[in-house]
Amino acid sequence: MTRKQELVQDVVIKFAGDSGDGMQLTGTQFTNNTALLGADLSTFPDFPAEIRAPQGTLPGVSGFQLRFSSESIHTPGDAWDVLVAMNAAALKTNLKNLKKGGKVIVNTDGFDVKNLRLANYPEGQNPLENNSLEGYEVIRMDVTKMTREALKDIPMGTKEKDRAKNMFVLGFLYWMYDRDMKSTEQFLEEKFSKKAEILESNLKVLRAGYHYGDTTETFTTQYKVDKARIEAGNYRSIMGNQALAYGLIAASVKSGLPLFLGTYPITPASDILHELSKHKNFGIRTFQAEDEIAGITSAIGAAYGGHLGITTTSGPGMALKTEAMGLATMLEIPLVIVDVQRGGPSTGLPTKTEQSDLLQAYYGRNGECPMPVLASSTPSDCFDMAYEAVRIAVEHMTPVILLSDGYIANGAEPWKYPSSEHLAPIHVKFKTELGHEEVKFKPYQRDEKGVRPWAVPGTPGLEHRIGGLEKENITGNVSYDPENHQLMVKLRQEKVDKIASYIPDQEIDNGPLKGDVLVLAWGSTYGVVKTAVEELLKEGHSVAHAHLRYMRPFPKNLGEILHNYKTVLIPEINNGQLVKIIRSEFLINAKAYNKIMGVPITKAELLETIKVHLKPALA
Fold first, then answer.
1. What angle do CA 551, 554, 560 make, to 5 degrees?
2. Which of 77, 132, 133, 298 has its C-alpha lying 20 to 30 A from 475's C-alpha?
3. Tens digit of each residue's pLDDT (9 = 90 or more) over 287-300
């Protein structure tokens, strides 16, 4: 049989099925395989909130979106070229985002009467039989049946055999996109090295899926995506939480400070704990506390003792940590609080993305309690901003909040990883003895940065009082004096404000230095804003993109930049938070675009919004 190969530039695949169908594993393996080929990629895992939602139901659908391209890309794509639907609920949930003419790979066993009823299809209606998939290329496979057939000689129960059906789909896609399966075979061999039967079943089904594509006459075309034309260097695929953990480890090594993580697991931040716990060879200590308060206070204790104190959480957990964050501010010790944001309020949408904690990071504590706030913009940027959060915390003796979100945390992209010698130094200064003219230690004596000394407890002659009560300036004694309190509030704020002199100036990511519209963004909107602005620039529009990573204090030149454009548009995955701060700080009438659906902003909707604000300039 003659096969032809078609070269394609850009592909978006969505894997979708029950949370027990292994779609996250399938997507991750295809992603890792893609990274080895050298194509650019971007992913967007989509988890159900329930640990195990009722099988076959709409709330139980788990998805994994992957885009790979021979060109440089910045988003996982708006619409899909290929949809893998393991059951009726997966098809119903995802069909609306499949491109017309796109491919639907369906597991026909997932479209029986029971599955159709659970997916709320009207009685007697089957989308595989009622022409509702007209305009799409439908690839029907009884994945369940063929998986069982491949494993007929293995003495396993039917339920155990069915767990391998995601490998059949993965094998078929490896054939469709002309891939080598060695990376996944190696993964399976390592994962199930002590479970020979499970290893054999997964390998058999993976190869059966590949051979199904190779031997079935229906399929005559394979597709190929070339390597991406990106900057030369050593790359690996990295997820946001993974990169953030590596950034903290790198900062620990470069600073010489042992890292202590005190935390309580919470979606979507838990993977940082999981990753850090694997690296005890770097002197990392991880403590899974009984609650959020114990997590942060243990990290404060570690910082007081001269360690690098870290705590990780999401929005609900940060709410519980706020009193202790105030304590760290009062003590003026280095601490990094990582907030991987999710939909809220309360328990909200635990597995969906949102940028809704910015105002909490700015103002969500009692009293005047200023803290630097940083935000990562992509999965690989989590490394840089985690490292920078540590640098600022240590060099300025302050707790620092680092904002990520679920989209960044679970997404993956190629990462050109740095070597240790290219990382900026982190300067640690411990006070170890009294100065020549000092008779008594002055724990709140400040340097030119407004920074007090870091004295490890037990150092002779440097005994001092700590606690949450207001400190007397310089001596650190408890003080209820009104004038002193006002002075200390101003000094703590001034110290944070001075950090602006020790961070980079704000840059324009893309577009002219002056123009009609500036799209000012932060966090996980980076990719979609960059993509949309690039497209508008090619069309000749006067539009630019600036992306904030330093949220508090802002870069010193930000105000000047903002006044160089007729309109400032701020897109956010919240109900308008950065826009409020920008209006307040710079007294400009910034415009907002807000989406609060638990999913990222798409390129199409952002293009439409930017063009609305370009119209007055074009009139």
1. 135
2. 298
3. 999 999 999 999 99
Rounded CA-CA distance 9/427 in Å is 46
For residues 449-461, average pLDDT: 95
Banded model confidence at residue 261, pLDDT cuts 50, 70, 90: very high
Q: How far is CA 36 from CA 23, 32, 39, 174, 202, in A?
A: 20, 6, 8, 13, 21
- Give the CA distances from residue 472 to residues 324, 478, 495, in Å, rounded to whole numbers and listed in that order: 20, 6, 16
Q: How far apart are CA 40 and CA 219, in angstroms?
A: 26
Per residue in 579-608, pLDDT (tens digit) is: 999 999 999 999 999 999 999 999 999 999
The whole model's pTM is what?
0.95
Q: Which two tokens stand for residue 171?
A: 């094998």
Q: Is the peptide bond before 425 cis (omega within 30 degrees of 0)?
A: no
How far apart CA 341 and CA 315 sit, in angstroms, is 6
DSSP state of 10: E
Asked, as a colleague might, if the bond just before 504 is cis with ω within 30 of 0, I would say: no
Q: Which tokens in the block code for residue 219?
A: 């399929």
For β-strands 285-288 and 308-313, DSSP reports them as unpaired
Tracing tokens 């003080």 back to the chain, one arrives at 479
Phi, psi dihedral angles at 181 (to 5 degrees)? -95, 5
294 neighbors 467 (Cβ within 8 angstroms): no
* Phi, psi values for residue 8, rounded to 5°: -120, 155
